[in-house]
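Reply to dn_fold:

You asked what the input looked like. This is it:
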Amino acid sequence: MKKILLAGFLAAALFLCGCNKTLSRSNVLDPNYDGGGTGFVEGYVKNSSSTGLTATLSYNNGTTATAGSDGHFSFSNAPAGNQTLTASCAWYAGATQSVLLNVGGSNRNVNFTLQSGRPSGIFPYGFENGALSSPWISNISGGGTQSIVSTYPHTGSQSCKLSTSAINDDAQIKYVGLNALKGAKATAWMYTSSLNMAVSSLKFQDTYSNGPEIGIKNGSFYYKNVTGSQNTIGGVTPVVNTWYRFDLTYEIDTSNLSYVIYDNSATPVQLASMTQFPNSSVAYIDRFVIENYCSTAGGAVTYADDVDLIKK
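and this is what came back:
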């Protein structure tokens, strides 16, 4: 009798062990569940304004799909089991979801809402706090000064004032630690009190201060490309004491640099794009700079406002 009971106990133990081994592979509640086979998964990728995004969808097993212009995507061969699905799109922060697809290929709907690729929640930034918000820093040399004032805001109640009074004075604000490996785009409004005594500019830089820039210098709009060549933008002459919006985009992964300049009514006054050499020495963007540099005696004041910054 004892032998029979012992044999029954051992058989039961072996059965339970076998069950546990089976559950670790096929129980849908198990985080490592891999049901085998495939199924159908579809959904939409949109931004916070519900606009469809042409995003790339990828499973952790390497299966990929591309969303259409309306943001719709589908996988007819989605792997069954507990899987990870990632949505990525240029100029947006990627997002990941866990997708459970049961054995037998049941259909699933999965939707993504991607947030802008802004590096910080402070953007768009209007200098309304009365001081620079981290990780903004000021960089002053000579007789240059930086302050947040209510004298000439573009919108809101305050703007950033960068002042110089003598040749080689320099006043900058920098957003440091951007670490944009694929590229970035920046928008800022600027207003200058002198077109000939100072250089008012926006810049993308690596840690060696190399990179493209755009602004006003010697009475003209100008740009400097990634390799350091500086060019005057003809056709339109800037007006003193006038707000202009400067858009600067540098896409490192495609070696493309572009800019647009708008007047105060948001009408484009200059726009252009330049394809750079893929082997440019600027391989990443570490910082974004707004600067007022005094190029001749007399100095000037530059106001900056409504800054936006997005990583690719």
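The radius of gyration is 28 Å.
Hope that clears it up.
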